[in-house]
Write a structure and sequence with these properties.
Blueprint lengths: L3 H21 L13 E4 L4 E4 L1 H19 L1
Antiparallel strand pairs: 1-2
């Protein structure tokens, strides 16, 4: 069984890698432009809520964490 310290280190490394990807400017083309993502644009107002993207990322993270727990 993996201890809590090792899990925190793995999560920290994952966040560092994810931060490096975002800081380098690499874009995932489909991320944030899926059907179901809410995008409203008016004259002086823009509202964006990536609903479908959030659900898919949540499912992927849940699967990855489930596999690490096994």
């Amino acid at each position: 069984m993996i201890g809590i310290g090792k899990v925190l280190i793995l999560i920290g490394l994952f966040l560092v890698v994810l931060g490096a990807i975002f800081a380098s400017g690499i874009k995932i083309p489909w991320l944030g432009q899926l059907p179901g993502d809410i995008y409203i644009r008016r004259d002086h107002f823009t509202f964006y809520f990536p609903l479908t993207t959030s659900i898919i990322l949540s499912l992927i993270l849940t699967l990855v964490l489930y596999l690490f727990r096994r």
